[in-house]
Write a structure and sequence with these properties.
The protein is of the alpha/beta class. It has a single domain, classed as P-loop containing nucleotide triphosphate hydrolases (Rossmann fold, 3-Layer(aba) Sandwich), CATH 3.40.50. The protein has a 7-stranded mixed sheet, with helices on one face. A two-stranded antiparallel ribbon has the order 5-6. A hairpin with a 2-residue loop joins β5 and β6. The longest helix is centred in the first third of the chain and has 16 residues. The protein is globular, with a radius of gyration of 18 Å. The C terminus is likely disordered. Bound molecules: guanosine-5'-diphosphate and magnesium ion. The site of guanosine-5'-diphosphate (GDP) has 18 residues, from α2. Magnesium ion binds next to α2.
């Protein structure tokens, strides 16, 4: 089915968000429209089981894609489209890029083919916050993304770390943990050519903390917020995806 013949559903999920979030979200969509941006296409990629589909659902505020605890994911990319006040949001959920301990190059090819006539505005590279080590597989996936989608894709990327509402072992400071975890991942997402040394030092690819479960902390306006005191990195989805 071509894009033109597709009837895009009204973005009803917005109404699930607390009023404060709705107001800010609509403000943001208004700003984008002023800049003549009326479509935003988000690509979501990462390993299997890290919370990609849950994040898609959190962003639009609906159970639009299947979340599975035990089963592996569907083999194909899926695009969910919603429109609101003349603005269209497209989110492409994808199968995990790791299958049986190996990079799933077949999935990458499927994703590439799926994206052929689409322009990606934002890449959400999803992983879990509550993982203590990065390993060779992380390196291989980010390399595969770079090789297949071009290193420029990282300029439009956000690193999304799910399970952000975690309890840390004693004496581990949340803020320190978050920055160590981010840095470890960012090391792989720093192709030498387009990133200057100084950018690698600071996190040039923004890191967003996300808690998809109901455990997420909330502020006085009932908005989801992060555990970090200064809210430098936040998990109040879906607002920060649009920043
Ligand atoms: P995907 O394979 O990357 O699409 O991951 P899913 O979205 O299907 O999630 C896999 C499992 O992790 C499911 O049981 C989700 O409920 C759970 N999950 C996803 N995100 C979070 C999160 O932020 N916090 C918690 N506690 N569980 C999550
Ligand atoms: Mg999934």
């Amino acid at each position: 089915m071509s894009m033109a013949s597709q009837v895009i559903r009204e973005w009803m999920g917005i109404q699930q968000f607390p009023p404060a979030t709705q107001t800010k979200l609509l403000e943001l969509l208004g700003k984008l429209k002023q800049e003549n941006v009326n479509t935003l296409t988000i690509l979501v990629m990462g390993k299997g089981g890290v919370g990609k589909s849950s994040t898609v659902n959190s962003i639009i505020g609906e159970k639009a894609v299947t979340v599975s605890t035990f089963q592996s994911e569907g083999p194909r990319p899926v695009m969910v489209s919603r429109s609101r006040a003349g603005f269209t949001l497209n989110i492409v959920d994808t199968p995990g890029l790791i299958e049986g301990g190996y990079v799933n190059y077949h999935a990458i090819q499927l994703i590439k083919r799926f994206l052929l006539n689409k322009t990606i505005d934002v890449l959400l590279y999803v992983d879990r916050l509550d993982v203590y080590r990065v390993d060779n597989l992380d390196k291989q996936i980010t390399r595969a993304i770079t090789d297949n989608f071009g290193e420029q894709i990282w300029k439009r990327a956000l690193i999304v770390l799910t399970h952000a509402q975690l309890s840390l072992p004693d004496r581990l400071d949340y803020e320190v943990f978050c920055s160590k975890r981010s840095e470890a991942l960012l090391k792989f997402v720093s192709p030498s050519t387009w990133m200057k040394k100084k950018d690698i030092q600071g996190s040039f690819v923004p890191v967003v903390l996300v808690e998809n479960s109901g455990r997420c902390a909330k502020n006085e306006n009932d908005e989801k917020v992060s555990q970090l005191p200064d809210n430098r990195i936040q998990c109040c989805f879906p607002r920060n995806v649009f920043y």
